[in-house]
Design brief:
Length: 309
């Protein structure tokens, strides 16, 4: 398949690389967008499931706290109001009132049987019996409330465990999303960098082609002088034979050089122009070159004549 001569410079342009980079960036952004959505769904599922796991612990903790609050009242940890609440509770406990009544009746019967019913000893016996029952009732109630303290601690530990688990899972989810975002941005940066560096690679290709030709010495007399290989072409003078001399830059190279344009040389000295430099360097296929010795023979001859005159 034949290519237009200027197709050679496609390898020096960055259009294809930029398009490839844009396609790559678009794919990266789409992939990260989908991944970000999945990460969000994962966080939603974590929150829902952990909330369900937290519910029984919270319920148990609320119930157990009622017992621990009463235990605090009994132990005098909740101030005067707590103590009063505990006192009222102890006095109104059905088991306590029944046991107190039964104990008092026994004391009275015993005192009556011994003829001491109306003595001061009866009052002492009743007082001792009531204090003993109160102490026993208090200790029993404390023992009954202690499991609530254990249940409260267990529920609190469960709540802490659920919240810690949720925090760790959310942290892992966000860390993974952060790593994915970092990877996406790094890939985008690399794609942009590769596209931007394509111009330098192009310049290297062109200079390598030209430099390689120079190293071939006498076996490669023509030089790449095609106008299509140059930018910023400006005439700066002319040779003794009237051929225009130009300042220019090779495409992809920032350095200015001075020389002839193959298309202009060809009009006067077609024998000094190589129609296809691809015969010397395949990268230069379709571009014209100039044999500077032949192209400047006439100018050199005129220069010598003018100097002699």
């Amino acid at each position: 398949m034949e290519h237009a001569p200027w197709a050679f410079f496609d390898i020096f342009g960055t259009g294809d690389q930029r398009q490839a980079a844009n396609d790559q960036i678009s794919g990266i952004n789409q992939g990260y967008s989908q991944l970000s959505d999945l990460f969000g769904q994962g966080r939603g599922a974590l929150s829902t499931n952990y909330a369900q796991a937290l519910q029984p612990f919270t319920q148990n903790y609320s119930q157990a706290n009622q017992g621990t609050t009463q235990l605090g009242n009994l132990l005098g940890l909740n101030g005067a109001s707590g103590g009063a609440t505990a006192q009222k509770t102890l006095e109104n406990m059905p088991g306590y009132q029944f046991a107190l009544g039964q104990g008092s009746q026994n004391v009275l019967r015993n005192q009556a049987a011994t003829g001491q019913l109306n003595s001061g000893a009866t009052d002492v016996a009743l007082q001792n019996q009531g204090q003993g029952m109160a102490s026993q009732n208090y200790n029993n109630y404390v023992s009954q409330l202690l499991p609530f303290l254990n249940a409260s601690n267990s529920a609190a530990g469960g709540i802490a465990g659920v919240n810690t688990g949720l925090g760790n899972q959310l942290n892992a989810n966000l860390t993974n999303q952060g790593n994915a975002a970092y990877g996406a941005q790094t890939s985008i940066g690399n794609a942009n960098a590769n596209a931007d560096l394509a111009g330098l690679t192009a310049s290297s290709n062109l200079m390598g082609a030209l430099g390689g030709g120079l190293k071939m010495g006498a076996s490669l007399l023509p030089f790449l002088s095609d106008a299509r290989a140059k930018d910023d072409i400006e005439q700066v003078g002319e040779l003794f034979d009237g051929q225009p001399v130009h300042r220019y830059r090779y495409k992809g190279d920032s350095r200015h050089q001075i020389g002839l344009i193959a298309q202009e040389v060809e009009r006067e000295r077609p024998d000094a122009v190589v129609a296809d430099m691809g015969a010397y360097r395949k990268e230069l296929k379709g571009l014209k070159g100039v044999d500077y010795r032949r192209a400047t023979d006439m100018a050199a001859e005129l220069g010598r004549f003018l100097k002699a005159a």
